[in-house]
C-alpha cells in the first residue's frame, strides 16, 4: 500500500497539461506561463531550449522547471510538467500537386500521385523543387520536397509520381552556329507529348530576344535554355569607351576591343591612339574599366 501511495503521489506531483503548440526555433519563458504562471517572473525572452523536431514532444518535467526558476531567483513550488510540440497534419494531394506545378512555371504538365509520405507535417511553405525529382522518364519517380516550417528548419517529405508533358517545342530548321543570334526564321514549332525532360525547353519566342547560341545547334534539335547565352556587352573589333581611375584622377578615352566579353570579364583592349595593348574589365555595353595594375597600357609606352 505504501508503494502504491508513493507512486500516486509522484504522478500527481508531475502531472502535465496537453502539449502547447510551438511556431519557432526556441521555447521561451513566456511560452511556459500559460501552464506555470510563476514563470511570468522570469524575463519573457529567457530561452529554455530548442523546439522539438515535428512529431516529437519536448517535455519539461516539474523538477526541471523548478531548478530553472530557482536559478533565476524565483521561489515557487512547481508541481506539473509542460509539454511542447509542433501541430502537424497529413499533406493533402491537392496541396502537393499545387506545390509541384508551382515549380514547373505554369507548363501544361500532367502529374499523377501514386503514393506519398504518411508522415504528418508542420504548417509552413510546401516546396517541391524540380531538382528533387529523382528521374525524368515515363516510369514512376520519387519527387522529394520539404516544408519550410521555421526560419532555419525544413521538414522533408516525398511523393511517388508519374509526370507527362503536352506542349509545343521549338526546333532548329537549320544548323545554328555558336554566337549566332536566335531568330524566329531559324525555328519551327512541333508538338511534344511525353515525359518531363531534364533540361528546360524554350516555350516562348519572345524570351529569345537578344539571345545567341552558346554552341552549334544542329538542324532538327529542340531548343533548350542551356543552349542560349545573352549577347556579350563588348564584341571583338568594336570601339569601346575606356575608363581609367587612379585616386582622384579620372580618364576617359576610346579603344578597340581585341576580344569579346560579358560584364565582369577581363578582355584585351587596344589604345586607339598609341596602339598599346592593355587589359580592362567589361562594365557595360561597349564600356570597359582599365585594370589598375595595367594602367600604363592606356597612356602608351610604344606599340606591342
Helix percent band: 10-25%
Give average pLDDT, whole number: 87
Shape: flat
**Structural class by sheet pairing and helices:** mainly beta
Order of helices and strands: HEEEHEEHEEHEEEEEEEEEEEEEH
By oligomeric state, this entry counts as single chain
Q: What is the level-2 CATH architecture name of the largest domain?
A: Alpha-Beta Complex
Q: For the report, how would you describe the main beta sheet? A: 5 strands, antiparallel
List how many beta strands DSSP finds. Answer: 20
Give the CATH superfamily of the largest domain. Answer: Antifreeze-like/N-acetylneuraminic acid synthase C-terminal domain
The radius of gyration is 33 Å
CATH class of the largest domain: Alpha Beta
Low-confidence region ranges? 1-15, 299-304
Q: What gap, in angstroms, lies between the N and C termini?
A: 105 Å
Percent of residues in β-strands: 35-45%
How many domains would you count in the coordinates?
Answer: 3
The tally of helices reads 5
**CATH topology group of the largest domain:** Type Iii Antifreeze Protein Isoform Hplc 12
Amino acid at each position: 500500500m505504501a508503494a502504491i501511495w508513493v507512486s500516486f503521489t509522484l504522478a500527481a506531483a508531475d502531472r502535465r497539461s496537453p502539449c502547447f503548440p510551438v511556431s519557432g526555433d526556441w521555447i521561451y519563458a513566456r511560452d511556459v506561463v500559460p501552464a506555470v504562471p510563476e514563470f511570468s517572473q522570469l524575463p519573457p525572452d529567457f530561452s529554455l531550449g530548442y523546439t522539438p523536431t515535428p512529431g516529437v514532444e519536448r517535455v519539461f518535467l516539474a523538477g526541471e522547471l523548478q531548478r530553472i526558476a530557482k536559478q533565476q531567483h524565483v521561489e515557487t513550488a512547481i508541481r506539473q510538467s509542460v509539454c511542447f510540440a509542433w501541430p502537424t497534419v497529413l499533406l493533402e494531394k491537392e496541396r502537393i500537386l499545387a506545390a509541384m506545378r508551382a515549380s514547373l512555371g505554369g507548363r501544361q504538365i500532367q502529374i499523377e500521385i501514386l503514393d506519398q509520405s504518411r508522415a504528418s507535417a508542420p504548417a509552413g511553405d510546401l516546396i517541391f523543387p524540380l531538382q528533387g525529382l529523382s528521374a525524368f522518364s515515363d516510369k514512376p519517380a520519387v519527387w522529394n520536397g520539404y516544408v519550410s516550417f521555421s526560419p532555419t528548419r525544413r521538414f522533408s517529405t516525398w511523393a511517388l509520381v508519374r509526370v507527362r508533358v503536352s506542349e509545343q517545342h521549338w526546333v532548329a530548321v537549320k544548323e545554328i552556329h555558336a554566337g549566332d543570334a536566335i531568330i524566329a526564321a531559324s525555328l519551327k514549332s512541333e508538338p511534344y507529348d511525353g515525359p518531363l525532360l531534364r533540361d528546360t525547353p524554350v516555350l516562348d519566342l519572345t524570351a529569345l530576344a537578344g539571345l545567341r547560341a552558346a554552341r552549334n545547334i544542329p538542324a532538327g534539335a529542340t531548343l533548350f535554355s542551356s543552349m542560349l547565352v545573352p549577347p556579350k556587352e563588348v564584341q571583338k573589333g568594336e570601339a569601346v569607351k575606356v575608363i581609367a581611375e587612379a585616386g582622384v584622377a579620372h580618364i576617359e578615352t576610346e579603344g578597340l576591343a581585341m576580344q569579346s566579353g560579358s560584364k565582369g570579364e577581363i578582355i584585351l583592349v587596344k589604345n586607339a591612339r598609341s596602339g598599346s595593348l592593355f587589359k580592362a574589365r567589361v562594365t557595360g555595353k561597349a564600356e570597359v574599366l582599365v585594370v589598375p595594375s595595367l594602367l600604363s597600357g592606356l597612356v602608351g609606352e610604344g606599340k606591342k
